[in-house]
Amino acid sequence: MAGSSAEVMWDVPGSFAWGVFHERHPRLIHQLGTDLPLTAEQRHALGELLDETLTGTVRPLPADAPDAGRWAAWGAGRYGRPWGETSFLWAESYFYRRLLGALGYFDQGTWHGLDPFGPAKAAELHGGAVDAELAGLDDLPESAPGSAGGRALGDALLTASLWGNRADLGFRITAGRGSGPDGPLLADGREAIWKHLAARPGRVCLVADNAGPELLPDLVLVDHLLHTGLAEAVVLHVKPHPYYVSDATPADTYACLRRLRSASGAAAEVGERLWREVESGCLVVRAHPFSCAPLGYADMPDDLRRDFAAATLTVMKGDLNYRRLVGDRHWPATRPFADAVAHFPGPVAALRTLKSDVAVGLDAATEARLDADEPGWRTSGRHALIQARL
Ligand SMILES: O=P(O)(O)OC[C@H]1O[C@](O)(CO)[C@@H](O)[C@@H]1O
């Protein structure tokens, strides 16, 4: 099946992916020079990386890099070849790994482990928009699980988590802050998800995406699942190191928990409960190396496959996870979601705002309407979907 549609490549002038490399990455590197006191050596290394991606061949990691072996396998056949021949998924992922390398993130020294996107993430997490979001939790009704009110509350939390995905910093480097009001969902699997969870409360895996304004509503959703008994335990999968600008790491996760706990009202109660769930082991934070791999979930390693296979439900957040889940290919948008995720070892749901070319599981009328009315619908971030194979 994978061979029947072409992979998304980035070196196609005028394509969305081309813009990521030619417009977004230069701006991102400029922004780093504003946010951090970079040395001449670091600036030079970042400049070289940009040039390499746009005009050069792919250089491997230094042999002594801690993840050199992993990347040798993940990139086999690509090193020494032009960057332009690599797929969008692979190239963008490797770009972020090399960016960290250019800053000395993996070396001994003062930049070791220092999140270069930390200043931008912190500004968001402690900004007024987050204050307002957290205060809004005071207005949510208390409702019994299983009641109509409980379902409405669940829907509201699921939807908040979904639209939180629009808040990714990488996207906003070129798209600007606003992308219009939340629109109707292109696919709405909410009812099926609630029925599924109510019938089989167990361990839920939530594969998180961005920190701050996305992770906070994710955590509120996690609290809802645990608090109402729809989940007995939750495993929150985050990235082992900074990635795609605002992707959540363990440090970002604990910063969000502290932010919730130090808020007031309902947000503080959620924070307190989640804090205890972490202490008791009902909420586990996991940072698997494959979370930063340049590959689709069809190629995940056995330990991760076992983790997802044993879960009642795996929730994949965000655009990149969606691309990795369904395959980063030019699929017909009407390809059934269940076909695209047939490789996945357990029940799986995707919560995603559309920020790249890939889409599956839409009906033909929806696709025709979007194509006619709104040529940029796949990448504008104005549309969202909730799809599930249970
Ligand atoms: O944070 P998200 O939802 O995964 O979005 C990141 C997306 O941003 C991009 O870098 C460009 O929009 C995509 O390649 C990627 O899928």
From TrEMBL:
Reaction(s) this enzyme catalyzes, per UniProt: beta-D-fructose 1-phosphate + H2O = D-fructose + phosphate; beta-D-fructose 6-phosphate = dihydroxyacetone + D-glyceraldehyde 3-phosphate
Superkingdom of the organism of origin: Bacteria
InterPro entries: ARMT-1-like_metal-bd_sf, ARMT1, ARMT1-like_metal-bd
Cofactor(s) required, per the database record: Mn(2+)
Pfam families: ARMT1-like_dom (PF01937)
Every Damage-control phosphatase ARMT1-like metal-binding domain range: 21-366
SUPFAM superfamilies: AF1104-like
UniProt keyword annotations, A-Z: Hydrolase, Manganese, Metal-binding
UniProt keyword annotation of Membrane present: no
PANTHER family noted in UniProt: DAMAGE-CONTROL PHOSPHATASE ARMT1
Family from the record: Belongs to the damage-control phosphatase family. Sugar phosphate phosphatase III subfamily.
Name of the molecule in the record: Damage-control phosphatase ARMT1 family protein
Phylogenetic placement of the source organism: Bacteria, Bacillati, Actinomycetota, Actinomycetes, Kitasatosporales
